[in-house]
Amino acid sequence: MTGLVLVGCGSGSDPSSGRTAAPGKVDLSGVTLRAADQIGQMKGLFNAAGVLKDVPYKIE
Fold this sequence. Notes:
By secondary structure, this protein is an alpha+beta fold. It contains one helix and five strands; from the N terminus they run E-E-E-E-H-E. A three-stranded mixed β-sheet has the order 1-4-5. A two-stranded antiparallel sheet has the order 2-3. The chain starts with a strand and ends with a strand.
């Protein structure tokens, strides 16, 4: 059985106002997505499928 855990944190909104940035106007170039699985095969599968090819954020 293979499991995948994705965790994200960000500061693209002001919690006190209840507003978030518009989806088309968010700069994700400074964001890092940290993905982990038990035996490390998910990164290879993602790369082989090409799903991470042009994402606007870094992946670890």
